Amino acid sequence: MKAAVLHWALRGLPVAPLSAIVPGTALILAPHADDESLGCGGLIAACCAAGRPPLVVILSDGVGSHPHSPSWPAPRLRAQRQHEALRAVSCLGLAAERLLFLDLPDTAVPHAGPVFERSVRQLAHLCSDHGCGIVLAPWRGDPHCDHEAAWKMAVALQARCGVGLLAYPVWGWLLAAEAEVEHEWPVGMRLDIAPYHMAKARAVSMHESQYGNLITDDPTGFSLPVALLAALVTDFEVFIRP
């Protein structure tokens, strides 16, 4: 399947009510601080408005975005990215105690092994303690190693706890139109987030270190692509069934 066809199919998924997508309390896995707002910001806001705030877990420490900045060494950048995430979820109505950080190494979130297993155990305890019935994680076709790792953790968590599982695409929206995508026809739902569009836009803007203006002394530093923002800060969000 061409990526252009995949994108067309995702945009044509049926719109479903929040209760059909997240019937209870959701656990949202975000590989990095900003993925929670980009991929699920509208859903987070909708869940909070419905009195069912999700639990959001950011897996990585986020320090890989500007590895060569002399003025933003890893401890300072880690603290900045956590601060940004707290401000972002506040825009969506989520209380600070519903946001947790695992501080796994950015660009090296494990796909298997002892740290992977320990992380899945931590997530399983969180599911149990908070009564989470469904886990949301990045789509397995997202072309980023940490997103792939987050998906694998979600699959392992489903096997361990029997929770539901949905995927949200982030970097998958930027796959080149003619690229071949080795995935089946997507099945899932869209959530209408028009009432929360502005809240999501504000949340995304809170991640100021990822826009290229705050940290200016690393020529290799990451900056959110305009095309990605255009694809994700819209009036709907997509959730794919595995």
TrEMBL record:
Q: Which GO terms describe its molecular function?
A: hydrolase activity, acting on carbon-nitrogen (but not peptide) bonds, in linear amides
SUPFAM superfamilies, alphabetized: LmbE-like
Name the domain of life this protein comes from. Answer: Bacteria
Which PANTHER family does the entry link to? BLR3841 PROTEIN, N-ACETYLGLUCOSAMINYL-PHOSPHATIDYLINOSITOL DE-N-ACETYLASE-RELATED
Name recorded for this polypeptide:
PIG-L family deacetylase
Source species of the chain:
Gluconacetobacter entanii
